[in-house]
Amino acid sequence: MKLDGHEVSPSVLNKVVTAGGECTSYDRASKLLRVMSDVKLSAMQVSRLTGEIGEELRVARDLKAVQHREGRLSSAAQTPVPIACVQVDGGRIRTRQADAAPGVHDPAWKESKAACLWRMDGKTFTEDPHPELPKCFRSIKHVKRLVREIKNASSPHADRPKASDKDSSGLPKRLRKRSKEALEKRLWPPQRKFRTVVATLRDVHRFGPLVAAEAQHRGFYEATRQVFLGDGDHKNWTIHKLHFPKFVAVTDFVHVTSYLYEAAGAVTNSFAAQWEQYIGWATDCWQGRIEKVLEQMDDWTARLEPVTGAAAATPTDASASSGTLPHDETGSATEGSSHVPEADERKEDSRPCAVLARCLTYLRNNQPRMNYPSYRTQGLPVNSCLIESTIKQLNQRVKGSEKFWSRPDSAEAILQVRAALLCDDNRLSRHIFSRPGRQFRRRPKPVKCLI
Q1: How many of the other CB atoms lie within 10 Å of CB of 77?
Q2: Where are the domains of the chain?
Q3: How do residues 109-136 score in pLDDT, each as one tens digit?
Q4: Which residues, 6+ apart, have CB-to-CB distance to 176 below 8 Å?
Q5: Which residues contact 80 (CB under 8 A, 6 or more apart)?
Q6: What does pTM read for this prediction?
């Protein structure tokens, strides 16, 4: 029956851990189990069982990374992968000191890193299948919401009042939802088929091997077309350089539009002028005319008051070619920092010249990864909305001002359970039903990190 020392069958254990990973708290998971499954376990018991399975998932994940490093990991893909899409990004999780007295000790925000690996399918084209700027990027309401979500804070250049929610093209306030049949008829972008998720609290150099191991296990390195998507954070491109050098590197177009929208507000004095300028720059970037946008911004920079100090720094030829930035693109704490500030703690220079300088830095650093017409011709995606959605799904369980996870074990365990639940391969249930039972329960010894 594969019973362990908890006297819980695999079927019940699967329900308990699923509830622990899906509900917003262990207390709610306990109540849900009692009502829906007649399983009477306290919140503490749900927490312990979820943590144990999460630790087992971590060990299995690390072992896969070791096998990948040693060349012993084989591909489990039964059919060739048409399009292998890897997207990476970072989230937020609040932690506390482990093995301390009751209460919260040494609280700190940490950056959780996540990757979603999508198997996609789509056609290639002899010419650009979508040369016009998509309607969503011409919708005032949609663009303003994107900017607020990406920047995580209001900006004087992003929140100007507007006359209506219709753009110059007459797009309605709410975009009509397309039916499944209509989506399947689209030639571009490619269709999503299958997803797996990797998440961790570790730094970028230990996160990269985990993503690479999952990619090899999925057969991504033998895919016909390969693409690696990320925002402007230089840590993402470090992973690409070390583990996915042959994948086509693409900078997320959504992040590009957020910078263009803010920069357009910095050089204009009304919303109508800002929107017109944004539409022009966004269209040029979408159609591959990045140099034209840079020339216009350089012209605007010469007109504005010179920026002094760090805000005036523009990328040198070396930094532009390497794609490195002094900070990540959200302005958050750099790699290795124990404190990740909230939005209200991040103070950015809101002067027009500083806003424009940040946009110029971003565009120049990412220019080699912004050949969007070529990517669309190859049938590749050009935005990282899928990983942004995955980060939100992770944060629904782990992020909250009232949630403190003991670092690193408790935080790492819940990330593994949550990531397994987001995978399309039923990973959590397969692990629970295949793990061996034991007659007597012993407290598991701590397992050292394998990578």
Answers
A1: 16
A2: 10-119+190-248+387-434, 130-186+253-382
A3: 999 999 999 999 999 999 999 999 999 9
A4: none
A5: 219, 222, 223, 224
A6: 0.83
